[in-house]
Amino acid sequence: MRFLRCADSGLLIELADLEAVQALYAVLAEDPPEGVTGLVPAARTLLLHLDPRANAAAVEAAVRAVEPRDGAPASGDLLQVPVVYDGADLTEVAELTGLTEREVVHRHTSAEWTVAFGGFAPGFGYLAGGPPELVVPRRTESRTKVPPGSVGLAGAFSGIYPRESPGGWQLIGRTGLEIWRADREPPALLRPGVRVQFREVP
Amino acid sequence: MSCLEVLATGPLSTIQDLGRPGLAGIGVGRSGAADGGAFRLANRLVGNDETAAAIEVTLGGLAVRATRDLTASVTGAPCPTTVDGRVVAVNSVLRIPAGAELRMGVPGRGLRSYLAVRGGIAVPPVLGSRATDVLAGLGPDPLTPGELLPVGPAPARFPLVDVAPVAMCTAGEIVLRVEPGPRHDWFADDALATLVSRPYEVTPDSNRIGMRLDGPALERSRTEELPSEGMVAGALQVPPSARPTLFLADHPVTGGYPVIAVVTAADVDNAAQARPGQRIRFRLRNGFKARSA
Q1: What is the ipTM for the molecules in this complex?
Q2: Cα separation, A195 vs B73, whole angstroms
Q3: How near does any CA of chain A get to the CA of B185, in Å?
Q4: Segment B197-214, tens digit of pLDDT
């Protein structure tokens, strides 16, 4: 664990890997140290937003005393996501992975994914836990408009675009599921810890 | 119910409050007033809770008509302000009789002004806040002429002072204190010294999300890709252009470029008042040195 200060506004904790981030986040999210106003888990780091009056040294000591819990934050929720696999980059993904398009779909639907963290846009969740064969780079040029509901791959992650936005992920399909609605409780279907199962639909 | 009629908005007027803290996990940033200090003062002057919603006015130009007697205040960038044509003082408690028009001209210095009304702007909250987040597309749309804004019930407490003494926004070079990190070790040895040695100019490519700065290049020593990580307001993120972007209220929750230094929380309000073309000088906060051993 390495602690990096963001002036008096934050404390960035660098961890070994995504699993370590999730293990620490699971505990801190339930009981954040005094002075912590928000937590931002990411691939290898956990950012603690601080009240500028907080004692950063005390927050650091409190975090060091935490016993990280194995696995993602307890949520238990399993979300079924129906997908039409006709994405614009499906052929490209097949070429990049050396799989057939059917094999790409099969591997995407066979895995149980977990929302590791959010970011990029409200309701966008980075889904981890996919098969290593589906690790692909982002597109060399990002699209200016990705339609809402697009299901994509980038790096070791899968994701669903909550609304129309620019984006550089490899698009393999689309879902009709409304994964973000600000006036719904909860507004985001993909919250850290939620497990996701993709299901192919015609 | 509607108590404020929007007649003109200037370049950009939005409704703001103290934002949506604690939702970063689902990709929602805090947002809220860019100059939190000026915003809070506006609410305090009219006896509101600091959490009440008010109007953030960018470079003046807002005009509103009261549909009933209102108590209001204007803070932040000092706009020449009139009520029914009579000049009134900023940072003070203003009475706007029913039917009267309040007009805010272009401020001579500073960028963002706040118009608070006693009772607060009572549009429906989104995820617990009435702030307009221009990056996430959350909260009410920017104001448009003809719009009618509801004002909430007056709070129990009354305004305590008539005028607040407030330091003027800086017209010349703005000095912002920074602390190195969290990724200053991704930059060349002299990059921090470069950051604080000469001023940067605020480019027109600036908004509530962040401020692009033009000035000396901050060269990196590590060129691999940084996995996206959480960002704070005040972060100086350095994209491949090697010129820093200073993150403001609507900054993204995470970012993939290294942050060389962070403006201290107390100075982020001053940063939010910097106008395009204005110069910013960064100064390392006491105890920090530009060259690390």
Answers
A1: 0.93
A2: 49
A3: 11
A4: 999 999 999 999 999 999
